[in-house]
Amino acid sequence: MTDQVEELERPAENTSSGDDYVDLTPEYAREILDALGDDDVSRAEELISELHFADIADLLGWASSSQRAKLVDLIRPDFDPELLTELDDELREEVISLLGTEAVAEAISELDSDDVVEVVEYLEEEDQKELLGALSDIERARVEEALSYPEYTAGRIMQRELVAIPDYWSVGQTIDFLRSAKNLPDDFYDIIVVDPRYSPVGIVPLSRAIRTNRPVLIRDVMDTENMRTVVVTEEQENVAHLFRQRDLISAPVVDDTGRLVGVITVDDVVDVIDEEYEEDMMRLAGVGEEDDLSSAIFDTTRSRFTWLLVNLFTAIAASMVISVFEGTIQQLVALAVLMPIVASMGGNAGTQTLTVAVRAIATRELTSTNAWRVIRKEVAVCGLNGLAFAVLTGAVTWFWFDDGLLGAVIGAAMIINLLFAGLFGALIPLGLERAGIDPAVSSSVFLTTITDVVGFFAFLGLAATFLL
Amino acid sequence: MTDQVEELERPAENTSSGDDYVDLTPEYAREILDALGDDDVSRAEELISELHFADIADLLGWASSSQRAKLVDLIRPDFDPELLTELDDELREEVISLLGTEAVAEAISELDSDDVVEVVEYLEEEDQKELLGALSDIERARVEEALSYPEYTAGRIMQRELVAIPDYWSVGQTIDFLRSAKNLPDDFYDIIVVDPRYSPVGIVPLSRAIRTNRPVLIRDVMDTENMRTVVVTEEQENVAHLFRQRDLISAPVVDDTGRLVGVITVDDVVDVIDEEYEEDMMRLAGVGEEDDLSSAIFDTTRSRFTWLLVNLFTAIAASMVISVFEGTIQQLVALAVLMPIVASMGGNAGTQTLTVAVRAIATRELTSTNAWRVIRKEVAVCGLNGLAFAVLTGAVTWFWFDDGLLGAVIGAAMIINLLFAGLFGALIPLGLERAGIDPAVSSSVFLTTITDVVGFFAFLGLAATFLL
C-alpha cells in the first residue's frame, strides 16, 4: 500500500488513510491557500482534486472569505452536494450563495431526503423555495413534510427512504425484492418488518438477513426485542439517548397512529450528539449556539453581549455587598486584598460541582431518584475541601499579615462559602431541570452570584464582627 | 400498538417505546427501589423483569450502595453480561464483585472481544486474570492482545470478529459462505475485501451485497472510495474524528504492516465521542475524569483538591497585585468595592473565547491555518464588548459614586482587561495544543489568573495615577 502511494506521488498521506484521498493536514491546506494567493489556479485545482468532500468542507471553514470565493470557483465543476451537509449553518448559506441557487438546486436532487432537509432548513425562505423547486414532486413533498415537524425532533433528522416488508415474506423473496427495487436508500442497515396497517413489528438486521437461507420466513428471523420505534415528534435529544443506550444503528420512526413514516440512522444521531454537547458546553460559558468561528465579528459581539450584561448586574450585586462594609475595609485594608480569594475559591469549587451535575443530568445518571444523595455528597465534598483550604488559606494569611485572628476569619469564610458552592452547584441545575429549562443555561451565572455574595458577605461580615 | 400495551398492563410506557421493554422513568425506578425498601422482593423482581439491560444499568447507577446489592441479587439469575459494558468503571467493578468473578467469568464468554476488553480493562490484575481464565484459549488470546495496545487507541476499541473475503469471489459465493460460517460477529455492516497479504482493499456494505445478483464478482461491487483503514495504534480521538467526518459505520483496522487485524464499529465510536466530550467539559472545570457520581466522597474530594490548590495560588497572586495598592485603596475605598467587577467581566469574556477555541480545536475547525484570523477576531469581539461595557460600567460608577473620573478609570480598565481576555482566551488553548497538551487542561486557570491580575492592576494602577 505504501509503495502504491509513493508511486502516485501523493503530497501528504497519513497513517490512517486507506482510501484514494489525501488527508487534509494544516500544511496541505496552507499549500492550497498559498497557491490561491499566488493565483496558481492549476496547482490549487490539482491539490483540491485529491481531497474528499468532507475535507473540502473543513478547508472552506479554515479559509478567509476571499479565499473561500476562489475555492468555491474551483470546486464548482465537480461539486458533490453532500459537502453542504458537512458545513456549519452560516458557512453553508455563504457557500450556497457563492455557488448560486440554480447549481445547488440541481445538485441536491441526488441527496437522500434527510440530507436535503439539513441543507435547506435554515436558509432564507426565498432560497429555500428556489432549491425545493428543482426537486421532483415526490422528493419535494417529502422534504416539505419533514420541514413541517418542529425543529430538533425526530421528524427533522429521519430519512423517508427505507425498506419495509411484510412478515409473511421469505428471506429469498426479500432478497429478490431488494435486487429489483428502485428508489432504495443509498445505505441501510436494517429491514423494517411492517404489519398490514404499516406499523413496524420487527427489524431484520442485514447481517442476519444475508446469513439466513432463502426459504426461511421473515417472521421467524425478525428481531422484535431490539427494535425501538421513535415517534416522529420525539425530541432529538431523547432519540440520541436511546441510540446511545441501546447501541442502535437505525430505528423506525412512526407517526402518532403508529404508521411507519421514516427511519433514523446512527450517522444522523452522531451529529445530534455533537450538537447537544456543544450546546451544553457553550451554554455553561454563556456563548450562543450560533457563535461559530465563521460568524461575523459584530454578530458574535452581540451574541456574547447579553451574557456579559447579566454578569455585569451580578458583579454589581456583589459590589453592593462589599460597599456595605466600606467602613470595615477602610480600617483594615488587608480585607480588600484577601476578599477575592474567598470568592474565587467558592466560584471554582461550585463550578466543579455544577459541571458534574449538568453532565450527569444530560447522560441521565442524575435524576430525581438519586438527587438528594448526590446533593449530600457534593456538599460533603465541598465541605471537606473547604476545611482543607480553610487551614491552608488561614495559615497563609496569618503568615502574610501576621494576624492569627484574620487567618481564622478567612478560614471560617472559606468553609461557609464552599458549603454554599457545593449546595447550589448541585441545586441550581437540578432546579432548572425540574422547571423544564436546560440545566446548562445560566447555571454558572446564578452560581457565581451566590459564591461572590456569600463569599464577600461571610468574610467581611465575620471580619467586622470579630476584628474591629 | 397502544391497545396492546394496555392489554398487557405495562406499568410505565413512554411514547418512543416499541420493543417489549418498559422505559425506566424516575417514577418507575422509585417504585422498584421502594419495593426493595419494603423487602417486597417479588414485586421488585416483577418490575425489573420488564427492563432492558441498559435500563437496569442506569438503575444500578441511581441506587444507593445497599440498594445496589439487593438489585444485583435480583438480576443474578437472568444476568445479561452486556449490562457490564453499560456501567461506569467504578460501578462496574462494584457490580462484578457483588456478582462474584466466577459468575461473571462464565457470562462474559458470550461477548464479542471488544466488549470483553471494555469489561476487564480497568479491573485489578487479579480479577482480570480470573475473568480471562474462563474464556476459551482463542478468545483469551484475542482479549490479551487487545490489552497489549496502549489505552485510548484503536486496538482497544476494535473487535477481532469480522468478515473478510477475497475479491475474486462472487456475491453468491460470499452469501453461501456467510450462511455456513461459524464464529461470525453478532452484528456487522460491511464485508471487508482483502488481498492475498490480508490487507483490506475495499469494503462491500451489506446493503449493497444483498442487492447484487449472485454471479457478480466482489471486485466489481466493492467500494474502494469510501473505505478508510485505521492503524491499530491510532488514537481513539482521531478515529472518532474520522468516523464523524466521513459518516462511517465501520472501518477495518490494520497493523503496521497493513494486515487486517480487526474492525471498529460506530457504536464503539459513539462511546469514544462521549468520553472525549466529557473529558473536555470536565477539564475546563477542573474536574478529574474519574470523578463519577458513584465515586466515594473522599476520592472525589481528593481529585478536586488539586485544581482548587492551583486556583488558590493564582488567587493569592491576584491578591498580591491588590496589596501593592493598599495605600490607594485606603484613600479611596470605592476602589475595593468596584475592583471585582473589572476582574469578573474579564474572566467571563475570556471564558467565552476560551470555550469557543477549545471546542473549535477539538472539532478541527480551528487549526494553524486560520489561527491568526481567529485570534484577531476574538480580540476584536472582546474589544468591542469592552467598549460597550466601559460605557455602561463607567456610567453606573459615575452615578453610584458621583465621580466622573472614577467612571473613566473603570471604563479604561474594562477595555484593557477585555482585550487581554480575548487575546489570551484564544492564545492559551492554541499554545497548549501546539505544545502537545490537551487545550482544555488548565486553560481556564491560566486565563483567570491573567484576567484577575490584569484587571486589578489596570484598575488600581490607573486609579493611583489619575485619581490621587
TrEMBL record, chains A, B:
<comment type="subunit">
    <text>Homodimer.</text>
</comment>
<comment type="similarity">
    <text>Belongs to the SLC41A transporter family.</text>
</comment>
<feature type="transmembrane region" description="Helical">
    <location>
        <begin position="407"/>
        <end position="432"/>
    </location>
</feature>
<keyword id="KW-0460">Magnesium</keyword>
<comment type="function">
    <text>Acts as a magnesium transporter.</text>
</comment>
<keyword id="KW-1133">Transmembrane helix</keyword>
<dbReference type="InterPro" id="IPR006668">
    <property type="entry name" value="Mg_transptr_MgtE_intracell_dom"/>
</dbReference>
<keyword id="KW-0813">Transport</keyword>
<feature type="transmembrane region" description="Helical">
    <location>
        <begin position="379"/>
        <end position="401"/>
    </location>
</feature>
<protein>
    <recommendedName>
        <fullName>Magnesium transporter MgtE</fullName>
    </recommendedName>
</protein>
<keyword id="KW-1003">Cell membrane</keyword>
<feature type="region of interest" description="Disordered">
    <location>
        <begin position="1"/>
        <end position="22"/>
    </location>
</feature>
<dbReference type="InterPro" id="IPR036739">
    <property type="entry name" value="SLC41_membr_dom_sf"/>
</dbReference>
<dbReference type="GO" id="GO:0005886">
    <property type="term" value="C:plasma membrane"/>
</dbReference>
<dbReference type="InterPro" id="IPR038076">
    <property type="entry name" value="MgtE_N_sf"/>
</dbReference>
<feature type="domain" description="CBS">
    <location>
        <begin position="222"/>
        <end position="279"/>
    </location>
</feature>
<keyword id="KW-0129">CBS domain</keyword>
<keyword id="KW-0472">Membrane</keyword>
<dbReference type="Pfam" id="PF00571">
    <property type="entry name" value="CBS"/>
</dbReference>
<dbReference type="InterPro" id="IPR046342">
    <property type="entry name" value="CBS_dom_sf"/>
</dbReference>
<feature type="transmembrane region" description="Helical">
    <location>
        <begin position="305"/>
        <end position="325"/>
    </location>
</feature>
<feature type="transmembrane region" description="Helical">
    <location>
        <begin position="331"/>
        <end position="358"/>
    </location>
</feature>
<keyword id="KW-0479">Metal-binding</keyword>
<keyword id="KW-0812">Transmembrane</keyword>
<dbReference type="GO" id="GO:0046872">
    <property type="term" value="F:metal ion binding"/>
</dbReference>
<dbReference type="InterPro" id="IPR000644">
    <property type="entry name" value="CBS_dom"/>
</dbReference>
<dbReference type="InterPro" id="IPR006667">
    <property type="entry name" value="SLC41_membr_dom"/>
</dbReference>
<feature type="transmembrane region" description="Helical">
    <location>
        <begin position="444"/>
        <end position="467"/>
    </location>
</feature>
<dbReference type="GO" id="GO:0015095">
    <property type="term" value="F:magnesium ion transmembrane transporter activity"/>
</dbReference>
<dbReference type="InterPro" id="IPR006669">
    <property type="entry name" value="MgtE_transporter"/>
</dbReference>
<dbReference type="Pfam" id="PF01769">
    <property type="entry name" value="MgtE"/>
</dbReference>
<dbReference type="Pfam" id="PF03448">
    <property type="entry name" value="MgtE_N"/>
</dbReference>
